[in-house]
Amino acid sequence: GAGAERKEIISAKSASRVWAARSNALSKGLHTHPFHDPAIDLHQLPRHGGRPGAWPAATKPPSEQEKEETLKPVPQLRNVSARSRQRSLREGGRSRGSGNWIQQKRTPTLSAQIPAWHCPEPVRTRVARPLQGAARREFLLRNRKLRVKARRICIRYFQTCSNAHVLKPKYVCFFGYPSFKYSHPHQMLKTTAALQGQVVQFKLSDIGEGIREVTVKEWYVKEGDTVSQFDSICEVQSDKASVTITSRYDGVIKKLYYNLDEIAYVGKPLVDIETEALKDSEEDVVETPAVSHDEHTHQEIKGHKTLATPAVRRLAMENNIKLSEVVGSGKDGRILKEDILNYLEKQTGAILPPSPKAEIMPPPPKPKDKTIPIPVSKPPVFTGKDRTEPVKGFHKAMVKTMSAALKIPHFGYCDEVDVTELVKLREELKPIALARGIKLSFMPFFLKASHNIGIAMDTEQGLIVPNVKNIQICSVFEIAAELNRLQQLGSAGQLSTTDLTGGTFTLSNIGSIGGTYAKPVILPPEVAIGALGTIRALPRFNQKGEVYKAQIMNVSWSADHRIIDGATMSRFSNLWKSYLENPAMMLLDMK
Amino acid sequence: MKIPFPKKNCFQLLFNLKVPAAGFKSTVKDGFILQSISNDVYQNLAVEDWIHDHMNLEGKPVLFLWRNSPSVVIGRHQNPWQECNLNLMREEGIKLARRRSGGGTVYHDMGNINLTFFSTKKKYDRMENLKLVVRALNAVQPQLDVQATKRFDLLLDGQFKISGTASKIGRITAYHHCTLLCSTNRTVLSSLLTSPYQGIRSNATASIPSLVKNLLEKDPTLTCEVMMNAIASEYATYHHIDKHIHLINPTDETLFPGINNKAKELQTWEWIYGKTPKFSINTSFNVVYEQSYLEIKVFIDIKNGRIEICKIEAPDHWLPQEICDKLNSSFIGSKFCPIETTLLKTCLKDDELHSKWNILCEKIKGIM
After folding, report:
1. Among A145, A201, B127, B152, which has the highest number of CB atoms less than 10 A from its own CB?
2. Model ipTM?
3. Which of residues 9-28 of A touch B (CB under 8 A)?
């Protein structure tokens, strides 16, 4: 914050000069502008540039004109004070020197790289090489005259690229030279890039107020236009707020992602810009919600920043590669595109198209079968592209419960039930129930044999488990009616919370779809679950030793071993089984 | 308390609060309240733009109070033909301005005050500003039932809109401005903001009409001056700044270098009409000519305020097809503006055709 700025930028000389000039101006009776101080030189930071209908250049205040003849005639006033001006220079004006900079030690190597600035007033010094020994002393001496005692000086020196074998800058130039923002000294010297122009996706940055989407109302650029940093790119509108989006990079617009009146999303790419200058690990300032691209953009592992251009980072991110694992073959360990591609090849044997988002795919849809979902990704759809669907609503809830469920120590217990009698009974009762308007399945019988339990239901939204309450006081018919009601509500998606909560344990009639044995997963906070397989006709021996056609149904129970032990489960299963095998017995014990 | 102009130097230095040995009032925080002495809508809008572009508002919130002579102000992406009655405005001499912020169309006159809250992008908070206004209103009249809605309007008694909001967000700075109806002429307002033009199809932001009421009708003590003072003092209290309202002249180039150019740009046809998003007109009108009644269909596409496609269909027996085509092609490329249409030259020798041409032109001017 403010503290950091003070430490970094304030130099005695500039402050004293400003003060002197200002008091000078005052004493002469000149108007000092309330929003602008003539003593502070204007820097050439055009707010808009290169677009049709750009703002006209502000007229210069008269006292300035003689000073600034050498400058380009577009002095846009930006700031009030020296300090804030330094800050804005640091923020944006990398290579936008203002007119008062002079190079003192221009060596042949430097002059080729650093643009020459000149100004009639030799007031500032930009030292572009570490001064040692006598030169340093001389420099300090010269400065001392202009130093105000009370102020601190932060003089940093800048290492030229000829000596630059360090990653971090030891020294940077003072007077707000924005070099310390970047960790690489190559930054401010526009060396002819070792790499070619990189196409960078410029994402729509956070607008504030929690706004997530805006409408694109006007484009100020088109594909092929050259833009500078801070040029306006487009105008978007959101809820009575009109927002001007400015470019973060210099370069050429390669692609516009939206047409007029389309909705643009914060955090998604807005334009592609082909940048020329080498950019090092510049942090992505986009504050996007949710999706974690952070580890790919920042890549600071224990303080060591991996060097890679934004395009390379994007490639790595798309392929889910951690930059820290890739060996960089570029200069200073820089990771190049080839490195990523080689890494990929090694990994997979081929370059595969990536799965863009790290979001969980819902388990394959077999809702009644509560087997532990093995996260098998769907086989590739060759007819079209893979589709990623966000996990929402019911699916999301299922993910949560299932993950919680696996924390319960399960045990399984399977048995077969001879439901021949039950089948007969149902056949007899079915038409009667139908006459009363109810579809009678086996479930009411199964349920009555239990207590107050949930029925797993397969609906459009996925698996939900409503429960039938107080089975002990309901008749089989009433249970059937209740089941029907729940089924109807379930298919309409209108089950209420009371329907969905309070189950003691669940019965899942997966057999109606298919399957015999299962290993169901308990739905917390219940303690047990049973999966009922299909009723099949199988030969069995009866009491007399004769083979008869039996209707066999397998039931698989899973129970929470922390609460239920094997014996309890076994006894329950046997009792349940006996009720089902002798429905007449149910009549006896039914309440 | 307003600082009169003779103390201009002091006032100017007040802005430049970083002067070390200035010896002027050291306020607890930076920030100030400005009031415009001009009633020209373009100049006042230019002040907003100037402050937005040139001032560093870090830790320095600014409130700007202004009032305009009768004018209609449309939002950045709106269509004036859709929003207001341009013919009536031309007759009455009411100015039309397009502001840089979004939102809908409003009518300004001296009974309406405009408030602009300038801040950095990070401190941009419309609801806070509106709550401030409500507090100010309640400070004057505690029984007043004013509430801010989710759409950032202020409603009186739950049904009458007394304030509308718009805002502009730039790279580092943002501003939020709103109106406040104290004693506006409501009949003029409703007549001006009703568009008579039919058949306009456009993607421009549409205004949402609302019932309005003046604060003065509710309580005769709530005049513009009272309101401005109340809001200024509430702002000063909230931001812990000096409660002085500084009067400014928006044409003063020394205070605001470059502002006159900004004001000029806001008055150009290219800005006011040319920035209209692409739209089309699909309508018809009737012409009575020598006791015959003709229907003329018009299909015009307008982009950047200029006619791109023009199809005026008149019955063949009345106006020959090639004359019609000539008329159509002459319109293409010209501004969708009655003044320019008048200048359209024809070289028709036949008097009758000429008069028919003139009738058509007049009718078309009526829809511009």
Report:
1. B152
2. 0.84
3. 19, 22-23, 26
